[in-house]
Structure formats: C-alpha cells, structure tokens
Design brief:
There is one protein chain. By secondary structure, the chain is of the alpha/beta class. The protein has two domains: 4-92, Elongation Factor Tu (Ef-tu), domain 3 (Beta Barrel); 104-206, Rossmann fold, CATH 3.40.50. The protein has five helices and 16 strands. It has helices at residues 72-78, 115-122, 141-146, 166-173, 186-199; strands at 4-17, 20-26, 39-42, 51-54, 57-59, 62-68, 85-92, 104-109, 127-132, 150-155, 162-163, 179-183, 203-206, 222-227, 230-235, 242-244. Strands 4-3-7-1-2-6-5 form a seven-stranded antiparallel beta sheet. A seven-stranded mixed beta sheet has the order 11-10-9-8-12-13-16, sandwiched between helices. Strand 12 (179-183), helix 5 (186-199) and strand 13 (203-206) form a beta-alpha-beta unit. Helix 4 runs parallel beside helix 5. The radius of gyration is 17 Å and the shape is globular. The structure holds flavin-adenine dinucleotide and FE2/S2 (inorganic) cluster (FES). FE2/S2 (inorganic) cluster (FES) binds next to loops.
Length: 250
C-alpha cells in the first residue's frame, strides 16, 4: 500500500443535507492514482487520531469527501474554512475491483453512498440503488446520474423514492446484473450478501470499523474472515475496507 501525507487546500466545505457536508480539496498531484473504495485519513486539529473518510470522487484535480457529523472530530471538520490546509493520508486501503466488461449494481445506504460516486465513474452504465432513512438525508442523486448511472432511490419512511429497503429493489433487478458492490450499515451488507448468495452473484462489500492508525500497524480495525475453510483476522484499513462478501464472518 503506497500512501503519502498530503497538505491539501480546502476549496469548499458546504452542507448538502442534514448534518452532511461535501468537502472539496485541491488535488495538485497528477501522479496520484486513487482506486474507488479507498479512503483518506483526515487529521483533525486537536485530536490525536485521524478520521477515516471514503473517497467520494477524485476527478479533475479535486478530492471530494462527503461526511456526516457523528462526534467531535467530524464537527470540527464541518467548521473548516475554504483557504485553509487539510492534512490527509491518501490513498489508503484496498478498494473495489471493477471489471469494465461487467454490469454492476452498486448498492448503498446512508453515509455508505459517497464512495459509490467514484465507483460509478469506473463502471459502464451501472445500476445504483441508494437507500436513506428519510428525505432530509438523501445525497448525491444528481451526481450519480451525471456519472451515467441508472439510479433507484428508496427511503425507510417513504418520504423520497420508493418506501422500503435497498434489498427489495436488488431482488427485482438482480437477474440483469453480473456483480454487486455494496457499502453501508452492517445489517444492510449482511442482507445484500444473502440476496447475492441466493442468486449466485459475486458481491464485494466495504466494511466500516473503528480505526486507529489506518495503515495496518495497530490492530484496532481487525475483522474476522474465512479463507480456505479457516477463520483468521484481517485489517479493515489495509486488507479492506473492501472484501469479498463470501469471506466475511458477520
Ligand atoms: C473505511 C471507512 C470509511 C468511512 N467513510 C466515511 C464517509 O465517507 N463519510 C462519513 O461520514 N463517515 C465515514 N466513515 C465513518 C467516519 O470515519 C466516522 O463517522 C468518524 O470517524 C467519526 O468521528 P467523530 O470524531 O466525529 O466521532 P467520535 O465518535 O467522537 O469518534 C471517536 C473515535 O472513534 C472513531 N470512530 C467513530 N466512529 C467510527 C466509524 N464509524 N468508523 C471508524 N472510526 C470511527 C473516530 O475516528 C475517532 O477516532 C468511514 C469509516 C471507515 C472505517
Ligand atoms: S487502524 Fe490500525 S491496523 Fe487498522
């Protein structure tokens, strides 16, 4: 894993939904190759540990990080102002493996949606199914359409799109796609993995674990996986965050 500490100029940090912000950073590093599903580890002034945030986009010299205020660190991030410098470790982790000849369904829930924008840009006309609790949390629909995706939207309470869960829509469309990539809360990932197993479709999932170092040195992010019939621990930060769904012991 090759990464660097980078000092990036903050271009914009606007609120786009309830407690959700869209941070845009100037990426003046033409040599940098970022894979979809990788993440940035953001230094927050006054905090010892960095905060992991998925790459939402890394096109046209701009790095986008879309994040939700959860605690003190992300609240500090939301107050950062254009013109200031943000210290990030980038690019980290193993992202999605995309085969340009396959039709993908990208399925994502809540704050699991941001990494799917950059992923959609690497796929040929993907189907993107997004799910949110409610209309006030819906994000990135126009960006996904502009990236060439067919988008389907659902909310738990029916205030936007179809009322229901992403897996209801996945079941209806799974026959027409070759592979699924998913990011979101663990119960959603488990349900998506079940639907894919029953349909015999390969599935990659992006896991979220609390992180310390972000680079494979501290073991905070260990997750249990099964390989060749044996259970072993892997690092979400270095071996993931994206894993083959069949490997993960939920
Ligand atoms: C690979 C990866 C990608 C992520 N991508 C995004 C994203 O694109 N957008 C987004 O809004 N959030 C994302 N998260 C979750 C985000 O990292 C946490 O919401 C954030 O670190 C919370 O920090 P805080 O200081 O506001 O909260 P606090 O709860 O005060 O954090 C305390 C400590 O716990 C850690 N922590 C808390 N929650 C999480 C969590 N869910 N995952 C990892 N560490 C956590 C913090 O980093 C910090 O060290 C991602 C997490 C991972 C692991
Ligand atoms: S966060 Fe330290 S090993 Fe993964």
């Amino acid at each position: 894993m090759k990464y660097d500490v980078r000092q990036l100029m903050l271009l914009d940090n606007s609120q786009i939904a309830e407690d959700i912000f869209d941070m845009r950073l100037k990426l003046d590093a033409p040599d940098l190759s970022v894979c979809c599903g990788q993440f940035a580890h953001v230094y927050v002034p006054g905090k010892t540990l960095r905060r992991p945030i998925s790459v939402c986009d890394a096109s046209d010299g701009v790095l986008r990080l879309v994040y939700q205020i959860k605690g003190e660190g992300t609240a500090i991030m939301a107050k950062m102002q254009p013109g200031q410098t943000v210290d990030v470790l980038l690019p980290l982790g193993h992202g999605f493996d995309i085969d340009p000849n396959k039709r993908y369904c990208l399925i994502c829930g809540g704050i699991g949606v941001p990494p799917m924008l950059y992923t959609a840009k690497q796929c040929a006309e993907p189907l993107v199914i997004t799910g949110f609790r409610s209309e006030s949390l819906v994000i990135l629909q126009d960006d996904l359409k502009a990236a060439g995706a067919e988008t389907l939207l659902c909310t738990d309470d029916g205030t936007a799109g179809q009322k229901g869960f992403v897996t209801d829509l996945l079941r209806e469309r799974i026959d027409e796609i070759d592979e699924v990539c998913a990011c979101g809360p663990t119960p959603m990932l488990r349900a998506v993995a079940d639907v894919c197993r029953q349909a015999g479709k390969p599935c990659q999932i992006s896991l979220e674990e609390r992180m310390g170092c972000g680079v494979g040195a501290c073991l905070v992010c260990a997750v249990k996986v099964r390989e060749n019939g044996e259970e072993l621990m892997k690092h979400v930060c270095k071996d993931g965050p994206v894993f083959n769904a069949e490997e993960v012991v939920f």
